[in-house]
Design goal:
The chain is α/β, with parallel strands linked by helices. The protein has helices at residues 3-16, 87-90, 99-102, 121-129, 143-151, 160-175, 195-205, 226-240, 260-272, 291-295, 305-312, 315-331, 354-360, 365-375, 387-394, 418-433, 439-445, 448-454, and strands at 25-33, 42-49, 52-57, 66-69, 74-77, 79-81, 106-111, 136-139, 141-142, 180-184, 211-215, 244-246, 277-281, 286-290, 338-342, 379-383, 399-401, 470-473, 494-499, 502-506, 509-510, 518-519.
Length: 527
């Protein structure tokens, strides 16, 4: 393409998009461009004007206000995290710039996963925008929160009137711009909902073009078993006619190691039948959750915390709870596979193993666990996955990348390292070192694939007309540094990050820009 044609195309794009000649232009020159679609990299230039990419190719001497030399560097669409717990952090002044996210190349995150998060998305949006956002946020409406607003923590099916109220709350959230419905049917109160309840709420999402994403009912053999739980999510997609996502897909615990292939077969069969089934995954063999969720039987949590503590004090009931906790601890691989990540009543235990704490106190691990739960909420890291399953599930073309990470004040607690390193880790360890997936596959899983699954327009691809969420990284330097016992370490290797056309990272340094948006499905993706 000649320079004259390129210049004409840029002018046409500017006119079509209502772009002003005064808008800032950035030319990213001579990079190895990965378009996000899974194609091999090509050497090219990328021209940004305002918040849009206006040209990609050999652009020669096209004038620009700023030139970024990307020689030897890779250029890709900004990464999209389909399962993030960073929403509450981004809504606070000290964390709203999202530095740990930007250091991973993230430019968009999906908030309110696992069925948890606020019901009032308009209020959440206002909180997110109050101090500006370092990254874009797409909101989900959370089944567990909706159910809690109507039924509380009651262990029973909803009445028709209660279901109607839940539908109304979901509909309001979708009208406010939600991208779909999230559930955590493993957790209270989502675990008290029959599959039919989820299906009815998913039907409300369908006319809005939303998706369904679920921390499915059983990732191990706690209750229905992992395969039946996968089938339940698939059936929601089938009945409602919407994309269904197995979020942070896994086979949890030694009792189900090796089930990765069975999950793949279930998904492939459903896809052949026309069901839109996908998954997302973080690149680690450890999960993170609450000690209560990991060990307590769900019936013991009905009615909330006060009811749970009352059951602890009834010897016959406590004996039944203890029996279930022993089984559930075995499902997790034992006490030496559980590490404490957050315990506000006694931060000194953070980073330590349950087995060590129990031994130190001369107690059984179950007694130690009950004692901690009596004192407050206990967050844990649980080492419970087989790397073979992780690799099997990662290699599938329908598996997206996620972090399941938090955004917390620097140095607070001992969070899972995925909060700081999930995306670079997948590229470094599983693409470049192990070769489980190719670089192009990895980039697609965190760019165009999530954009396609959730229907985010003009993001996830490097092409003219797309929103300028762009990352420039040094593949040789790209790595995660966060460790399980020392997680508060930023990822390395991101040289430049642009969010809606504005530099959030320049030459590896944070600019302090807060140019992120709350993307709304009902407003064409927040443009």
């Amino acid at each position: 393409m000649s320079r004259r044609i390129i210049a004409s195309a840029i002018l046409l794009l500017a006119a079509a998009g209502g772009l002003s000649a005064q808008e800032h232009t950035v030319l990213i020159r001579n990079g190895k461009v990965l378009d996000g679609a899974g194609n091999p990299w090509v050497r090219a230039d990328v021209l940004i004007r305002g918040d849009r990419i206006v040209a990609v190719g050999a652009l020669g001497d096209v004038p620009a206000d700023e030139v970024v030399d990307a020689t030897g560097l890779y250029v890709a669409p900004g990464f999209i995290d389909t399962h993030s717990h960073a929403g509450p952090g981004l809504a606070t002044e000290g964390l709203s710039d999202g530095r740990p996210l930007l250091a991973q190349g993230l430019t968009t995150i999906f908030a309110n996963p696992d069925g948890g998060g606020p019901v009032d998305l308009a209020a959440q949006r206002d909180q997110l925008l109050a101090d500006g956002l370092g990254v874009n946020v797409a909101q989900l409406v959370s089944h567990g929160s909706v159910r809690d607003a109507v039924l509380g923590a009651e262990d029973r099916p909803a009445t028709p009137a209660e279901l109607a109220r839940m539908k109304a709350l979901v509909r309001t959230a979708m009208e406010e711009g939600a991208w779909g419905l999230s559930s955590g049917t493993f957790y209270v109160p989502g675990s008290y909902a029959p599959p039919e309840e989820i299906e009815e709420l998913a039907k409300v999402v369908a006319p809005f073009g939303g998706a369904y994403t679920s921390h499915y009912r059983d990732e191990s053999n706690y209750t229905v078993g992992v395969i039946a739980a996968v089938d339940e999510v698939i059936n929601v997609g089938r009945v409602a006619g919407i994309p269904a996502v197995l979020t942070h897909v896994k086979a949890l615990g030694p009792f189900v190691w090796g089930y990765g292939q069975a999950i793949v077969r279930r998904v492939e069969r459903a896809r052949e039948e026309g069901v839109q089934v996908f998954a997302d995954q973080y690149p680690y063999t450890a999960s993170a959750t609450g000690l209560e969720s990991a060990l307590l039987p769900r019936w013991s949590q009905a009615g909330g915390r006060d009811s749970l503590l009352a059951r602890f004090d009834r010897p016959e009931t406590m004996a039944l709870i203890r029996e279930a906790m022993v089984e559930n601890l075995a499902r997790r691989g034992g006490a030496d596979r559980i590490q404490f990540r957050r315990f506000r009543p006694d931060p000194s235990i953070e980073g330590r193993l349950l087995s060590d704490l129990a031994k130190e106190g001369g107690e059984d691990p179950i007694d130690t666990s009950v004692g901690l739960i009596r004192r407050g909420s206990v967050s844990i890291v649980s080492f419970n996955m087989d790397d073979g399953d992780v690799e099997t599930l990662m290699a599938q073309p329908w598996t997206m990348t996620s972090s399941d990470g938090d955004l917390v004040p620097w140095g607070e607690g001992v969070p899972h390292p995925r909060s700081y390193g999930a995306f670079p880790r997948k590229i470094r360890l599983y693409a470049m070192e192990k070769g489980v997936v190719g670089l192009e596959h990895a980039i697609r899983s965190m760019t165009s694939l999530p954009a396609a699954v959730f229907g985010i327009p003009d993001r996830g691809l490097l092409r003219p007309g797309a929103v300028a969420d762009v990352v420039v990284f040094d593949l040789d330097a790209l790595t995660d540094r966060a460790e399980y016992t020392a997680p508060h370490q930023l990822a390395e290797g991101m040289v430049h990050v642009f969010v809606n056309g504005e530099a959030a990272v320049t030459n590896g340094e944070f600019t302090g820009a807060r140019n992120g948006r709350v993307l709304r499905k009902t407003e064409g993706g927040g443009r």
